[in-house]
UniProtKB/TrEMBL annotation:
<keyword id="KW-0521">NADP</keyword>
<keyword id="KW-0963">Cytoplasm</keyword>
<feature type="binding site">
    <location>
        <position position="127"/>
    </location>
    <ligand>
        <name>substrate</name>
    </ligand>
</feature>
<comment type="function">
    <text>Catalyzes the NAD(P)-dependent oxidation of 4-(phosphooxy)-L-threonine (HTP) into 2-amino-3-oxo-4-(phosphooxy)butyric acid which spontaneously decarboxylates to form 3-amino-2-oxopropyl phosphate (AHAP).</text>
</comment>
<keyword id="KW-0479">Metal-binding</keyword>
<dbReference type="GO" id="GO:0008615">
    <property type="term" value="P:pyridoxine biosynthetic process"/>
</dbReference>
<feature type="binding site">
    <location>
        <position position="265"/>
    </location>
    <ligand>
        <name>substrate</name>
    </ligand>
</feature>
<keyword id="KW-0460">Magnesium</keyword>
<dbReference type="GO" id="GO:0008270">
    <property type="term" value="F:zinc ion binding"/>
</dbReference>
<dbReference type="GO" id="GO:0000287">
    <property type="term" value="F:magnesium ion binding"/>
</dbReference>
<keyword id="KW-0862">Zinc</keyword>
<feature type="binding site">
    <location>
        <position position="202"/>
    </location>
    <ligand>
        <name>a divalent metal cation</name>
    </ligand>
</feature>
<comment type="pathway">
    <text>Cofactor biosynthesis; pyridoxine 5'-phosphate biosynthesis; pyridoxine 5'-phosphate from D-erythrose 4-phosphate: step 4/5.</text>
</comment>
<dbReference type="InterPro" id="IPR037510">
    <property type="entry name" value="PdxA"/>
</dbReference>
<dbReference type="GO" id="GO:0050897">
    <property type="term" value="F:cobalt ion binding"/>
</dbReference>
<protein>
    <recommendedName>
        <fullName>4-hydroxythreonine-4-phosphate dehydrogenase</fullName>
        <ecNumber>1.1.1.262</ecNumber>
    </recommendedName>
</protein>
<keyword id="KW-0560">Oxidoreductase</keyword>
Length: 323
């Protein structure tokens, strides 16, 4: 909790990385101080950055707990500076280290700007891949939760041109195994029903509109169904998210980023949560980006960050209950 709350034993300890310093992440961290949250939050950020943003948007910091990681150069709202990219990555390293050591029960990330990190000469496609590397996890899965659905992805941050070649039988099998495992173990769904999209229009139209469904997706689904997994598909992606399917699926599995996330964000932008599956640590995140246009204005909506914190609390409690 960040506003007035009675001290309580065993609240989940959650690290929050403030993200890109020129974006809305620092504003959202300040906004957390205005809410009562049943967790011990540690904001990992430059202390003076958060203080300055609080002053800018006219909100008190209260007893917000901030662990200081110094900026490389002063940050102005809305003005990206590649010099601060190493700071952004350092906040992530610190949170991961704390989660791995047991100091934190989970980490929640505010948005980073992928482009400016690359401008600094650091190859970076997203938190998901960076955290996989830091935790030595060979395969992670991105799943978003919102709008009454869960949507996981086979391919994440890659050019559309590269997608078909990146969908392989071993990769698909490994992702479905992780997804199934985490839906059971982390989300407590005993028999998850996973609806799997095809890659091509009409799921390939029997091979006339592409052969990935026949050659890659169907053989993997048949193999895993043989092990007892409840898998539907490959389904035409244009109708996969029908209202009827929303009531029946525990999770949709999309072949590429915008096939799944455009639908989810249409239904829930600003209230959705991004969760990384397959890692030894719990990580949730906002569903939006750095919104440079809103940084320092006080107009950013903290809804997604609050929902991400609540999901982290729930997943940490589920994990504790299983120990
Ligand atoms: N979790 C993360 O670190 C994510 C980072 N990004 C990064 O963010 C950067 C900017 O991405 P964009 O595509 O421009 O998306 P964006 O989400 O930053 O902005 C899209 C639109 O939504 C509005 N918006 C976003 N968050 C809002 C909030 N909390 N309250 C009110 N309005 C909000 C913005 O003002 C803008 O009009 C990119 O570098 C992208 O890679 C994008 C998504 C997730
Ligand atoms: N569209 C989701 C997104 O870009 C966030 O990715 P990540 O930084 O959480 O890997």
């Amino acid at each position: 909790m960040t506003a007035a709350r009675e001290p309580t034993m065993s609240l989940p300890r959650i690290a929050i990385t403030a993200g890109e310093p020129a974006g809305i992440g620092p504003d959202l961290c300040v906004m957390l101080a205005q809410h009562v949250i049943d967790a011990d939050l540690t904001i990992i950020a430059d202390h003076s950055l958060i203080e300055a943003r609080a002053e800018q948007i006219g909100l008190p910091l209260g007893n917000l707990n901030i662990e200081h990681v110094p900026l490389q150069t002063p940050a102005a709202p809305g003005k990206l500076d590649a010099a601060n990219s190493s700071y952004v990555l350092q906040t992530l390293r610190r949170a991961v280290e704390g989660c791995l050591s047991g100091e934190f029960d989970a980490m929640v990330t505010a948005p980073v700007h992928k482009g400016v990190i690359n401008d600094a000469g650091i190859a970076f496609t997203g938190h998901t891949e960076f955290l996989a590397e830091l935790t030595n996890t060979p395969q992670v899965v991105m799943m978003l939760v919102g709008g009454g659905m869960r949507v996981a992805l086979i391919t994440i941050h890659m050019a559309l041109r590269q997608v078909p070649d990146a969908i392989t039988r071993p990769g698909l099998e490994s992702i479905i195994r992780i997804l199934h495992h985490d839906l059971v173990e982390r989300f407590g769904i005993s028999q998850p029903r996973i609806f799997v999209a095809g890659l091509n229009p009409h799921a390939g139209e029997d091979g006339y509109l592409g052969r990935e469904e026949i050659e890659v997706i169907t053989p993997v689904l048949e193999k895993l169904r043989g092990e007892g997994m409840n898998l539907s598909g490959p389904l035409p992606a244009d109708t996969m998210f029908s209202q009827k399917n929303l009531t029946q699926a525990d999770c949709f599995l999309a072949m590429y980023h915008d096939q799944g996330l455009a639908v989810l964000k249409h239904a829930s932008f600003g209230e959705g949560v991004n969760v990384t599956l397959g890692m030894p640590i719990i990580r949730t995140s906002v569903d939006h980006g750095t919104a440079l246009d809103l940084a320092g204005t006080g107009k950013a909506d903290p809804g997604s960050l609050l929902t991400a914190i609540n999901l982290a609390i729930e997943l940490a409690a589920n994990k504790k209950a299983r120990l």
